[in-house]
Amino acid sequence: MGKRRFGVSIPQNLAEALDKLASRLGVSRSELVALALREFLHDHSHYLYKHECTGVIILVGSEKQRRKVESLLESYRDIVRAYLHAHTEGECIEVIIVKGCSVRISTLHRKLVETGCKPRFIPLRDNVLSEGNTASASYTQPA
């Protein structure tokens, strides 16, 4: 597979952290950026390609946000397979296992962001962003 070169401007402190991590991992800056982008795209593939997927959504938030999350999850019972709530250091941690259409999961993800939480979706399958899939793959935008 060929490579494409392009310039990116990032804050100085981010560039320094990137260089430090690349050095500690023994890889080039380009290799580290490619790895980070590959992971980010993989974790957000539910926004790019319509597919069936299984994954875990992790949230950290306040008690007020937890109530919003629990209320929201009631509307997504068709894709929520399991839900765990725990407390640590005064914060709520939510672990949500989801399975279903990527369009539905991306909609849930967006609504979780709207609660003020920062959801992290971790796909459990690795086949969506294989080299055969490209940005031109069909995707239906959720309503």
Kindly describe this structure.
- The protein is of the alpha+beta class and 143 residues long.
- It has 2 domains: 12-43; 50-123, ACT-like. Chain A, domain 2 (Alpha-Beta Plaits, 2-Layer Sandwich), CATH 3.30.70.
- 41% of the residues lie in helices and 24% in strands.
- It is built from 5 helices and 4 strands.
- It has a 4-stranded antiparallel beta sheet with strand order 2-3-1-4.
- A hairpin with a 2-residue loop joins strand 2 and strand 3.
- The longest helix has 15 residues, at 29-43.
- The radius of gyration is 18 Å and the shape is globular.
- Residues 130-143 have low confidence and may be disordered.
Ordered list of secondary-structure elements with their pairings:
Elements: H1 12-25, H2 29-43, H3 45-48, E1 52-61, H4 63-74, E2 80-88, E3 91-101, H5 102-114, E4 120-123
Antiparallel strand pairs: 1-3, 1-4, 2-3
Proportion of residues in extended strands: 15-25%
Shape: globular
| C-alpha Rg (nearest Å) | 18 Å
Q: Helicity range of the residues?
A: 40-55%
Largest sheet: 4 strands, antiparallel
Tally of individual helices: 5
Instruction: Indicate how many domains the architecture comprises.
Output: 2
Strand order of the largest sheet: 2-3-1-4
Summarize the structure.
This protein is α+β, with helices and mostly antiparallel strands and 143 residues long.
Characteristics of this structure?
disordered C terminus, 41% helix, Alpha-Beta Plaits, 2 domains, four-stranded antiparallel β-sheet, 5 helices
